[in-house]
Amino acid sequence: MTTATSTSGAEATAAPTFRLFIGGEWVDSTSGRTFESRNPADTRDLIGHFQAGDAADAARAIRAAEVAFQTWRRTPAPKRGEILYAFGALMAEHKERLARAMTREMGKVLAETRGDVQEGIDIAFLMAGEGRRLFGDTTPSELPDKWAMSVREPLGMAAIVTPWNFPMAIPCWKMMPALVAGNTVVLKPSSDTPHCATLLVELMAEAGFPPGTVNLVTGPGPEVGDALVASPDTQIVSFTGNTQTGKRIASIAARRLKRVSLELGGKNGIVVLADADLDLATDGILWSAFGTTGQRCTACSRVIVEAPVVEPLLERLERRARALRLGSGLDVTTDVGPLVNGGAVDKVASYVEVGRRDGELVTGGSRATGPGLEHGYYFEPTIFAGVKPMDVIAQEEIFGPVLSVVPVPDYPAAVTALNQTRYGLSSAIFTRDANTAFRAMRDFETGIVYVNAGTIGAETHLPFGGTKDTGNGHREAGHAALDTYTEWKSIYVDFSGRLQRAQIDNQPD
Ligand code: UN1
After folding, report:
1. What is the best residue among 123, 297, 446, 450 to mutate for testing ligand 1's pocket, by most ligand atoms within 8 Å of CB?
2. Which of 124, 186, 243, 384 could form a disulfide with 264 if both were Cys (CB 3.0 to 4.6 A apart)?
3. Please, are residues 104 and 338 in contact by the beta-carbon 8 Å criterion?
């Protein structure tokens, strides 16, 4: 969470102050202003003071990245890959420390923050290997004694604007492919997780990324983020966050024809058919709906259920949701941690009010109180039954622990309900029928489809991203990520010693 800039008293002096990382140096912001980051499970716990960067700091970082690009682009890609590998190894060595710091700063439980760090390690190692691939094509020329090939080229400086819910994995998803391909980066993390970003960049510096290849500017989005996006010297913008901000970024970047990769909202659904294994479906739904306290782009917020199994499924979901233990994510007995900040609690609470009109509240619905929860941003896992596909809570992204159960008569109605949303990130189906499973793989209009599993848990070597308003057609992770951070150069070498004309010579008269 983030609060206003100034602090006083012993607490303020006890908490460390962190800096920006520009051109290989840890430096103060130009304005000297700072902001705080606090633990959302206990807001008395002040993590530190962070530099409130602004446009001047963004400009310094862009300049450093531009200078570094000239050398980094010419560093052999396998050598670049070795530095990524060293970084992945350092993350693995420091996994527990990073995971604990992440839980402290953004709240999700330790098992999940360990997973977040692991996702960063996985993409670092995957992209380290790309240093020895970065494949292009060689292909025959239509003319004799002529060679044709295509190679990937870096674009320049990439602005990496990242959210707080995966505060290490997502920056790594973006920075690793950008860097292995020869780009340099400026990271602007969410102001809810500046400490996570700082820890990551510390390890990047230690791994051996040369000065200026990786830069960190913390501070408000409208100042740092906008300056990065608007700069003529930024060639790529990669953003994960809400759809409204994504659209604003795209429109600023469009003025300069910049490449923009957007990973935005979701309203992910799980279809449960009458023949499903209901216990397995219950496990998948609860994990997808209440893991990360519902704060994932891939979180399941709609369960679309065939009529005959609505009651038995609801009974299981209610019983299991009521048993979930809320608390600090650092406590191993906790199932569900706090929301990220007070604004998130207010937003979830206001959607629950809307939900009370649309559906029937089965469980939850309130801010969670009780021993140990007094100083945190807790909200009860909440389930609504009898929700209709076009109701507000079945349409808008809530980004919290709120699940809507939508009854449908049959599979065709389930497909219609699932696809009737402006988003298209992740979806799932629980069925024992192989034919229906294959129909779902074809029919579900999302970038990711799961069969007999929940909507979360994407692996880093497959493309990650969604259709419709979830993004603008790019994919992260997998080798697809390289398409965002490279452009193609086609090269023709004529060794015939004479002028040969494509499309003209070698054609019938
Ligand atoms: C996100 O919520 O923005 O599949 C990313 C998953 C994770 C990534 C989520 N591997 O849920």
Report:
1. 297
2. 243
3. no
Give the nearest ligand 1 atom to 115 CA.
10
CA dihedral 69, 72, 78, 83 (to 10 degrees): -100
Instruction: Point out the residues that are catalytic.
Output: 263, 297
Picking from 212, 224, 207, 147, the residue whose alpha carbon sits closest to that of residue 184 is 212
- Which domains, from first to last, does the chain contain? 11-264+471-489 (3.40.605.10), 268-451 (3.40.309.10)
What single-letter DSSP state applies at residue 209? Answer: P
CA of 282 to the centre of ligand 1 (A): 20
Q: Which residues of the chain have pLDDT under 70?
A: 1-13, 509
- Ligand 1 centre to CA of 428 (Å) is 14
**CA 314 / ligand 1 centre spacing (Å):** 26
Pocket of ligand 1 (CB under 6 A): 119, 165-166, 240, 296-298, 456-458
pLDDT of 9: 43
- The predicted pLDDT at position 13 comes to 54
Give the pLDDT score at 14: 82
Q: Which of 224, 243, 242, 244 is nearest to 234 (CA)?
A: 224
Both ends of the chain: CA-CA distance in Å?
Answer: 72
Question: Which pLDDT value is given to residue 8?
Answer: 42
CA angle 195, 201, 206 (to 5 degrees): 130
